[in-house]
Amino acid sequence: MLRIGLLTSGGDCQALNATMRGIVKMLYKNASEPVEVYGFEDGYQGLIYERYRLMDWADFSGVLTQGGTILGTSRTPFKLLDVPEADGVNKVEAMKHTYHKLKLDCLFMLGGNGSTKTANRLAEEGLNVIALPKTIDNDTWGTDMTFGFPSAIDVATRCIDDIHTTASSHGRVFVIEIMGHKVGWIPLYAGVAGGADVILIPEIPYDMDNVVAAIEEREKSGGRFAIVVVAEGAISREEAALSKKAYKKKVAERVKPSVAYDIAEEIAARTGREIRVAVPGHTQRGGAPDAQDRIFATQCGVEAARACLDGEFGVMVSQHNGEMRLVPLEDVAGKLKYVDPKSDLVREAKLLGISFGDE
Ligand code: F6P
C-alpha cells in the first residue's frame, strides 16, 4: 500500500484542484501497489489537528476546471511554527505525529514561500515531503512559473480591458491596483497584456514627477484617457529610502484602504485630471484555472507523483526553460523571486513607451 497525504496551504489560487488531480491520477495509474490518499483540511491545520479525510479517485474527477481548493486552506506563519498553539500543542511535533500515525509514505504540499519553508522544516525532521509551487504571485524561487499565475494574469488583464472602455468614454485616468505586495509579476504581465500606460511595481521605486510626466505626455499626444497599473506594494523612491520599520508604519497609517487611492489622489492633485480607482482584489485568485494553468498544474502533479514513485523527497517540482525538474527544498525555501528591472519584458515595455515611473 502506498499512503500519501495532500495539503493546500496559504492563499488559494485557481489551479490547486487541477494539480492534486494530476498527482492522484498519476499515482493511481502508475503505482505498482494500491494507493491510499489522505486529504488534510485547511492546510497545515489539518495535519496538526488530525483533520483529514480518506479520499479516492472519484474525489478528483471533475475538478480540473474547479477553482479554489476542495481541501480548504489556511495560513500557518512559519515564524510562529515553534510557538505552541493556545491549547499548548507543539505544531511541529503534532504534524510529525499525524504523519507517522497514518504511516504516510509521502506528504504532497501545494503552497507558496512561507508554506515551502514549513515543508522544508518537516523534511529536515525526517518526513518524506514533496512541494509544489503554488501562488498567483509567481514569486517562488527556483521555478520560472508557479501555478495560479497564468489565471491571475488573465483575470487582471480582463479587468484592465474592461476599464479601458469606460476610461475612454469619460476621458478619465484610472489607477488599477493589481495583487503583489512584495513582487510585481502580475502587474507587469497584466499591465503589458492590457496595454497600460504606466506600471508601478515594488522592484522599481517610482518618482511621482515621472508618473505625472507620463500621463501629461499621453494627453499631449492625443490620448483621452490613461491607465495606471499599480502593484499592491508599489513604492515611491522616498518610501524606498525609509527604514523597513518607518515604511511599515507609513503603510499602517494609510487612511485610504490601499496604495492605489494614495497614488490616485496625488495624480489628481498634480494633473487636475478626473481620476477613478479600480481594485479587482481577490477576483484575481478566483474562478476557474485558464488553459495554460491547467496544463502546468497537470505537469506539476505528474512530476511530483513521479518523484514520489522514484523515492525522491525533500524536493520542490519546478520548471526551468520549459523543462520540468526537481529542486532541493532547502535551496528554495523562503526565497523570493523578484522581477529583474533589467529583464527583457521591462526593457521592451519601456521601448513601447510604458512608464515605470523611474525615468
Ligand atoms: O499571495 C497571494 C496573495 O493573493 C497576494 O497577491 C496578496 O497580496 C495576498 O495574497 C492577499 O492575502 P489574503 O488572501 O490573506 O488577503
UniProtKB/TrEMBL annotation:
Keywords of the record: Cytoplasm, Glycolysis, Kinase, Magnesium, Metal-binding, Transferase
Record PROSITE patterns: PHOSPHOFRUCTOKINASE (PS00433)
Enzyme class: transferase
Cross-referenced InterPro entries: ATP_PFK, ATP_PFK_prok-type, Phosphofructokinase_CS, Phosphofructokinase_dom, PKF_sf
Keyword field contains Transferase: yes
GO cellular component: 6-phosphofructokinase complex
SUPFAM superfamilies: Phosphofructokinase (SSF53784)
Membership in a protein family: Belongs to the phosphofructokinase type A (PFKA) family.
The protein's name: 6-phosphofructokinase
Organism: Thermophilibacter immobilis
